[in-house]
Amino acid sequence: MDDVIESFLKISQEIPKAKLSLAVRIKNRKDAQKKKEISSKLKKRHLLKQVVFHDNGQYDMADIYNLADISVFPARNMRGKFDVPLAVIEAMACEKPVIISNLPILQEFVNNKNSVIINPGDVSQLSREILKL
């Protein structure tokens, strides 16, 4: 999530009215602390009102994807994950372009019509690709 936030901070400099929708469920204290840190960072930059947190699990993902222009899944690794992230499949099913990391399990979904690959952890590349789309 850090890469998405850092990218949003860069993008908001070029597109001041940019909005970010985060669908990340808070499952424990560590997640709650992370949200607090992110909120604080956004508040300092006067961007908190441009970010929506969908963090209680009480939302319809199709609705969220259909409100979005693009979906990003900039994972740094997939260690401990046994299957393909549902978020990538759901976004593609809603016909949204997806920016995904260059990781073996995610490459199965890549084509020139629906996705862009970025290097894991490359916030500048993520920001550039978001702006292109």
Number of domains: 2
Structural class: alpha/beta
Number of helices: 6
Major beta-sheet overview? 3 strands, parallel
The strands making up the biggest β-sheet line up spatially as 3-4-5
Q: How confident overall, as mean pLDDT?
A: 87
N to C succession of SSEs: HEHEHEHEHEH
Describe this structure in words.
- With 133 residues, this protein is α/β, with parallel strands linked by helices.
- The chain has two domains: 1-59, no CATH class; 60-125, no CATH class.
- Helices cover 44% and strands 13% of the residues.
- The chain contains six helices and five strands; from the N terminus they run αβαβαβαβαβα.
- It has helices at 2-14, 29-44, 61-67, 86-93, 104-107, 123-132, and strands at 20-22, 51-53, 71-73, 98-101, 115-118.
- The strands form two sheets. The chain has a three-stranded parallel beta sheet, sandwiched between helices.
- Helix 5 links the parallel strand 4 (98-101) and strand 5.
- It is globular and about 40 Å long.
